[in-house]
Design a protein that fits this description.
The complex is a heterodimer. Chain A has a ten-stranded mixed β-sheet, covered by helices on one side. Chain A has one domain. By secondary structure, chain A is α/β, with parallel strands linked by helices. The radius of gyration of chain A is 21 Å and the shape is globular. Chain A contains ten helices and 19 strands. In chain A, a hairpin with a 2-residue loop joins strand 1 and strand 2. In chain A, helix 2 packs antiparallel against helix 7, helix 8 crosses helix 9 and helix 9 runs antiparallel to helix 10. By secondary structure, chain B is of the alpha/beta class. Chain B has one domain: P-loop containing nucleotide triphosphate hydrolases (Rossmann fold), CATH 3.40.50. In chain B, 36% of the residues lie in helices and 28% in strands. Chain B contains eight helices and twelve strands. In chain B, the strands form three sheets. Chain B has a six-stranded mixed β-sheet, with helices on both faces. Chain B has a four-stranded antiparallel β-sheet with strand order 2-1-4-5, with helices on one face. In chain B, strands 7-8 form a two-stranded antiparallel sheet. In chain B, helix 6 links the parallel strand 9 and strand 10. In chain B, helix 4 crosses helix 5 and helix 5 runs parallel beside helix 6. The mean pLDDT of chain B is 91. Classes of the chains: A alpha/beta, B alpha/beta.
């Protein structure tokens, strides 16, 4: 029994399959991926990984594929990602899932970095792309399968061996007012010893129930240093499903931070694989939700090589009737001796009607490791609030200070000072809006 | 009218009456000491005046500068000039001490219709005050009270008081946990603030602190009531003879 959304997705694929970019092996890849979806359907609560985010129930309809953006849509995208404006990042702008060169900083791309559009690379049958595309994203994941079947455009990025890229590269994904669906796929290959920061940001208008499915495959070479940031600031009615699939080489540094504040329904998936020895990684995130927002962060970190250190820290602040989900699983394979992995997830509930589901898991097959996890959920500390108020700080401001302090532990882990500041600003903006909402 | 006027105050916590008809009148320029045995209701009085939740009066009234204190939120009380130096100052990881001090000071000024302090002026005030209290500026870079020793926390309370310049400061067992040197520094900080426009209520179990902060009036609080009031010599008498006579008197 198919739902309306499942039937619409099948129709979308059958109508679009012949004009989606790429042929031959790419087209076959799309067909195989679509079969995964056709067999499984949209994931629902009886599928363990989607227990708390029943996509079949949450996704009432599937929107039509986005058409290329018109001039008006492009014009609105000019002011996108203002909060991250001080970073002087080099931007690649995508409007309704389509790369827009004239809004992007193509001319300012630094030496050592090569960027292009996925659609172009697919059409050209670029062998460097096909060597990487689909190699990391889990094929059994239905969200990824739909992405692979319907991917239209995205970024293809190569960082040369040993290159140090000074300014962050920022993929700006903007949705226009049309209630459409976009499927973007990006591939980034960071060669050994290179250093680069990649930011992905997502935003769109509040009044449109558009749908975003984005995925990126990230290859981090030996000795590379990669900072990855994703900010999900979608419009209030939007549905956003995105996936990071990364494989990290030996003696590398990898930091990731995902910041979720927007969207009606958000599913943020991170699949990380530690392939090389002695890598150090910090995987962090913050979620701020209110109203009836639903935000799910699902993390799967697999330690394959020995001697890697990973720190996972995810914090959620919930107001009103919002719902947050954190599922974090650390897998330590038999060969991954001396793994040092610690995962912490904490939820701060500002309302009695909010719900936080935290599910940390460890699966350890090696016998000489240091692994741990913890989870907490609670309200603001009244004693601390009283202490602040007794010094003259009004209740709302006292709460804001305590919420910022709660998130601080995760945000302070961000190495880049400019980015840290930008996220602190984003938190402040959220808190300000919270203070202004009608009671 | 006195700056602080407490009349027939009764307070219950979890159904148990802790204060049983307390009267107290404190004028500007005065230092009152409230002494009493453990469990007599000293800290209850301090928290109640500062406005802590769960400390609801069942009878009586408290006026601060003529206004009904029970109609004011804790932050309004602070802005009106009431300050409580906590017996156990809290640690607030993630809130930088400087941010805390500045937010508090400016929130109070804003409520009083005064302009915010400029950054240089604020920093100068903090530095000068910290120096007087022998507080290492490095400590102010940390989260509020995070990693502070007991004595450092108490000095940090005095620092906040000096910055906020309250009209009435309630010191709840500021001497507990302090060695003699730290006690002198804290007492010096308090004494510097004494003046005709400010009053203090010093709550303590021991007379020791009152050697350094010499009170104008001493009250004995026992079983929820002020049972005796006298001059500073009363503190000496308590030190010599203990609280036993008052406890027996009211246990009956």
């Amino acid at each position: 029994m198919k739902t309306a959304a499942e039937a619409a997705l099948a129709q979308t694929f059958s109508q679009a399959r012949d004009r989606l970019p790429g042929s031959g092996a790419i087209a076959a890849q799309r067909e195989a991926a679509f079969d995964v979806f056709a067999k499984a359907g949209l994931p629902h609560r009886r599928v363990e990984e989607w227990k708390y985010t029943d996509l079949r129930a949450l996704m009432r309809e599937a929107k039509p594929l986005a058409a290329p953006p018109d001039a008006a849509a492009k014009a609105r995208a000019k002011t996108a990602a203002a909060m991250l404006g001080d970073l002087e990042a080099r931007r690649l702008v995508f409007v309704d899932g389509v790369f827009v060169p004239e809004l992007s900083d193509i001319a300012k791309i630094e030496a050592g970095l090569r960027v292009g559009s996925l659609a172009d690379a697919l059409c050209a049958g670029d062998s460097a792309l096909t060597a990487h595309l689909g190699k990391l994203a889990p094929t059994g994941d239905v969200a990824v399968a739909l992405n692979t079947a319907l991917m239209g455009d995205g970024a293809v990025i190569y960082a040369a061996p040993g290159a140090t890229i000074e300014r962050p590269l920022h993929l700006v994904f903007v949705s226009s007012e049309k209630p459409v669906a976009t499927f973007t796929r990006s591939v980034m290959v960071v060669e050994p010893g290179a250093r680069v920061m990649l930011i992905e940001s997502y935003e769109g208008p509040a009044g449109s129930d558009y749908q975003v499915n984005a995925a990126i495959e990230l290859f981090v070479g030996d000795g590379a240093h990669v900072d990855y940031v994703k900010t999900i600031g979608e419009g209030a009615e939007a549905m956003h499903v995105s996936t990071l699939a990364a494989a990290i080489g030996a003696k590398a540094r990898f930091n990731s931070f995902t910041f979720t504040a927007g969207g009606a329904v958000v599913r943020n998936q991170l699949y990380l694989r530690f392939d090389g020895e002695d890598t150090v990684a910090g995987i962090r995130g913050a979620t701020l939700v209110r109203g009836r927002q639903h935000a799910d962060t699902t993390l799967m970190a697999t330690h394959i090589a020995r001697g890697c250190q990973s720190r996972e820290m995810f914090k959620a602040v919930l107001d009103d009737e919002a719902h947050s989900v954190f599922q974090g699983r650390i897998v330590v394979r038999q060969g991954a001796q001396k793994t040092d992995a610690k995962m912490m997830t904490q939820a701060l509930l500002l309302s009695e009607r909010a719900e936080a589901d935290n599910k940390p898991e460890l699966e350890i097959f090696a016998d000489d490791v240091q692994c741990g996890h913890g989870a907490t959920a609670g309200a603001l500390d009244d004693e601390l609030k009283f202490y602040l108020m007794a010094r003259g700080i009004p209740a709302a401001e006292a709460e804001s200070l305590l919420i910022q302090a709660f998130l601080g532990e995760a945000i302070e882990g961000i190495e880049d000072a400019g980015l840290r500041e930008a996220l602190i600003e984003s938190v402040a903006a959220w808190l300000k809006a919270r203070g202004q909402k009608p009671v | 009218m006195a700056l602080l006027e407490v009349k027939n105050l009764h307070v219950e916590i979890d159904g148990k009456e802790i204060l049983k008809g307390l009267d107290l009148s404190v004028d500007s320029g005065e230092v009152h000491a409230i002494m009493g045995p453990n469990g007599s209701g000293k800290s209850t009085l301090a928290y109640l005046l500062a406005g802590k939740d769960d400390y609801e009066p069942t009878k009586g009234e408290v006026r601060f500068d003529g206004k009904n204190l029970f109609e004011m939120e804790p932050d309004e009380r602070a802005a009106a000039g009431l300050f409580l130096a906590f017996q156990y100052p809290l640690e607030i990881p993630g809130v930088a001490t400087m941010t805390f001090l500045r937010t508090a000071l400016n929130a109070q000024r804003k409520r009083r219709g005064e302009p915010e302090l400029s950054t240089p002026e604020f920093l100068k005030r903090v530095r000068d005050t910290a120096r007087n209290l022998a507080i290492d500026p490095e400590m102010l870079r940390r989260g509020v009270n995070v990693g502070f020793s007991g004595g450092e926390k108490k000095r940090n309370e005095v620092l906040q008081m000096a910055l906020l310049q309250p009209r009435l400061a309630i010191l709840d067992e500021t001497d507990s946990g302090l060695d003699i040197d730290a006690l002198k520094i804290a007492a010096d900080g308090v004494n510097r603030l004494r003046g005709p426009d400010r009053a203090f209520v010093v709550i303590t179990h021991y007379q020791r602190l009152l050697n350094y902060i010499v009170p104008d009036v001493v009250h004995v609080l026992s079983a929820g009531r002020i049972v005796r009031t006298g001059g500073k010599e009363l503190a000496m008498e308590l030190e010599a003879r203990g609280y036993a006579q008052y406890q027996e008197e009211f246990a009956a």
